[in-house]
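OP here, attaching both records as promised.
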Amino acid sequence: MAQYVDSVIFDLGAVLIRWDPHHIVNTFTPDKTLAQLMLEQVFQHQDWLDLDAGLITEQEAAIKIAARANVSVASIHELFAVVKQSFTQIDKTVLLLEKMSAHGIKLYCLSNMSVESYQYLTATHSFFKHFDGLVISGYEKLIKPDINIFELIKNKFKLNAAHTLFIDDMPYNISAALECGLQAIEFTESDTCYQAIIDKVIPLSHNNKYILNR
């Protein structure tokens, strides 16, 4: 018999907010060569992971990227601004978060994100009020899929792993969560995925079928 769920941990990027580096670089510049360069030298480079892990600041990252890509530091800061502007909420997931909150589910956030991006998000999105606790990689100097960041959120909020569901879009993060004893669902924006989450979290007695369409 499946374990019941009384706590849910949400990722942010591509779960609650849009995250699409290809769209970001193409918004930043119509120059396809420059867009590809930014994709490779920013989002596909170790510096981006270090920024998310809080090992470098945005300013430090901008200096390193600019030197490597032979562009101005100011242009990298412009790209970082486009990144933040791209963080629009995924309405259906936010509605799901609100439904869970209304049903008394404990809600948490575990995200790989820089301090600067997190500060921007909390200033521009109201859904953070639904969380009972958050662990953001930039503050903790740890990053998914490191097992230690999963142990951190479990211990910090005294979560019972067997009764906690982790929702994330990346398969390797799902694997790490399962290794830590959490229940986990790999997120997609499909009706099937949303319904699977609802069926696992919100009791059938609440008539949950297609609850997001109401």
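Record two, same layout:
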Amino acid sequence: MNDLQQLIRKYTVQEDRKIKRICAPLKDYLGVSYFSYFTISPNGDFAFLSNYPEEVEFYFSEQLYKTCPYFVHPDLLRAGWAVDDTTPDQPYSDFIENRYGVRRLLFLIDKEGDKLDGYIFTNKSSEKNDLNIYLSKLELLRKFGRYFVKEASPLIRKIQSEQYNIRKALGEAFEKPFASTLLGRDDKQAEGFLKTILPLSKREQDCVDLYRKGHSAQATAAILGLSRRTVENYFENIKNKLGYESKRDLLS
């Protein structure tokens, strides 16, 4: 069992009654059975709570969270809402519908400064899950999310005191491009294609021509009347456009 599994078991599973009590108004008044909450700090400190421990324990024990780039890069999440069918987790939602008979409905993200709170609303598949109904209650769902954070704040603080850092735990996941995405030096067909759809500017082409004649970045800058930093920026743009890993690939 890893640290995150222990955290889920310690707080979501063992504190199940307390969490269900806080979530009761959601079911009683809005007809939504299940709710999950997560928060991530800019440096990766992570907390997660849910009133559906069976599904959540499965998600974390199977380490499916490792497929979610937003846990490593929370800055990619924007404040707002999304329906489940438009999220990268949609295949998992199909799976839990078959396994547990539940369907994720909506995701809400609150951001205030560096603070990020995420709310996931899930219901039984047998319920009438008309998204228009829930979208019409969007502001009520958002208010419930903030109510949950207030009522569960002692639990949330306890989790945060454990200082579990999901960014450190996942390491370089989603950080590095696959080598196979880079073009080979002899892939002239792909290079021609990219030059057509992402043509080099005149200055970028000047930099390539001078580099192929043997001029250094500093010499190229002097010839073109530019700063060396500007020339290096041009070369970065050229590499990105053509899919090259190194400036040396331009010599092929």
